[in-house]
Amino acid sequence: MQDIDINKATEPYEYYLKFIKENCRPDNRRLSDIRPCNVTTNCINTVNGSSLVKLGSTNVICGINARLCRPKEDRPNKGYIVCNVEVPALCSSKNFKSSTQSSSFSQSSVSSSTIEQTQAMLSQLMQDILTESKCINEEELCIKVGKLSWVLFIDLICLNNDGNVQDACCVAMVSALKNLRLYQIEYNEEEDKTVVKYPLEYRSLILYNEPVLTTLFAIEENILLTDPNKQEEDFMKTFVHICTLDSQKICLIRKLGGFCLKIEQLNMCITRALDNGKYIRENVYKNKY
Amino acid sequence: MQFLETKLEAQLGCLTKPDGSAKFSINDTVQICGVYGPGEVKLMKEIAERAYVNVIYKPRVGANTNREKVMEYTLRSILDGIILTSLHPRTAINIIIQEIQNDSNFISCGINCTCLALLDAGIPLKFTFASVRLALTEDDNSIVYFPDSKQDKKIKISATFIFDSIDKDVISSNIDGIFDTKDFEYLMNNAKQYAITNIFPLYSKLINEKY
């Protein structure tokens, strides 16, 4: 027992590899398992829709604010959605507030970057998931063509970073969208005013599909694992983000850097992502909102 | 197949100050890349066993927004695995890309430009890499290589791939749109063929002319 504890501190990578060779991981998961995922909705009552997701120890909270605005000039019949992800200093000991300091403490060259870049990357990823999956029809956000529409500000804040923030963000975003309540607004043409219908009538947005993001990573040549935790993110050599819509359709594949993956490995990633998507849709998204 | 319509042009060594530079243009998208390195690094960013790769992407107008930061992150994570950084510990390799014209192919153009600039600077790489962007149109399901902003409005799936020069495997891929595995393989195989027939020979030609 004493030997195992010493190796965990002095040679963490070799200690981790011993588990992988036996097809399991230190936290008792199989290579293709994700951590237990729990969602609570309606946790913030000052916003129109909210959710809190726990993926293992990674906590992400999402709040959606709906505001009225004039639609953009080139799209007068559509509202719009703005996504913003924050990874503040409180969520991880390696996330320093200073934007000029990069986290060079982590060994992995693939996952180290400044806070600004990580936040930009995550925000862009969430925005792309919404646009590419077409899960929200932006024309439903318009109240009066050219004059009045809803704009949804989706804010995601990571409260605890134990790896794989992006998967948790996606689940939080979709759960909060399902929880969203917009009240009925009418536009009075003659007086050029917006009128809120009293008593307040609520409507929710229709989600045409439920995107699920899965992150797979590789530490050695042919070993692919799902859902990295913080320690595994330091070891990983390459990762793939795959966003699935239902049992066959994929809306987004992002693979960045590290070493190359062969076509068979990419196909295996896609199969695992589709299975994971099915699992999340059946167990997590099915909750009553 | 629209090979004949895409015009790829490149030029090595167009800037005098950087250690290596290159200009790359795909139809109307033009970018210049300058590479300085391996050189001095600030103490904060120094890494004991490898070089620190720093990528700066400058847009044509305006300040840096999310788009530029995402481009920098993408490039840095790709290059960290390709440049032999352990040969130059405690140094920094600075890569600066300036966008001159953008017609929606800026990611591919930037990556190809960076590869040529790194070759021009003589920085040791595991392999050279080439980026291809293609799309499936909505009307007749045909493939368009490097669609420009007008063609962008009529596509349903857009994919950017980066291939290495040895095994022609996928280093990086970025696919948007609603698709399934068959579409993915079809796009990947076509992109690979395009890279093999057009982009890698262009690199060889340029390097042969220089040396």
User: Per DSSP, what share of the residues of chain A sits in E-state strands of 2 or more residues?
Assistant: 25-35%
Helix vs. strand class of chain B? alpha+beta
- Structural category of chain A is alpha+beta
Low-confidence stretches of chain B: none
Largest interface: A-B, 41 and 38 residues
How many DSSP H or I helices of chain A? Answer: 6
Describe the oligomeric state of these chains in a short phrase: heterodimer
Task: Tell me the helix content of chain B.
Answer: 25-40%
Terminal-residue CA separation of chain A: 47 Å
Rg of chain B, alpha carbons: 17 Å
Instruction: Give me the side-by-side strand order of the main sheet of chain B.
Output: 1-2-3-5-4
Largest sheet of chain B: 5 strands, mixed
Fraction in helix of chain A: 25-40%
Q: Please tell me the overall pLDDT of chain A.
A: 84
Number of strands of chain A: 14
SSE pattern of chain A: HHEEEEHEEHEEEEEEHEEH
Gross morphology of chain B = globular
Report what the structure shows.
The complex is a heterodimer of chains A (289) and B (211). Chain A has 289 residues and is α+β, with helices and mostly antiparallel strands. Chain A has 6 helices and 14 strands. In chain A, strands 1, 2, 3, 4, 5 and 6 form a 6-stranded mixed sheet that branches. A 4-stranded antiparallel sheet of chain A has the order 12-11-13-14, with helices on both faces. The model of chain A is unreliable at 99-107 (pLDDT under 50). Chain B is an alpha+beta fold and 211 residues long. A 5-stranded mixed sheet of chain B has the order 1-2-3-5-4. A 4-stranded antiparallel sheet of chain B has the order 7-6-8-9, with helices on both faces. The interface between A and B is large, with 41 and 38 residues.
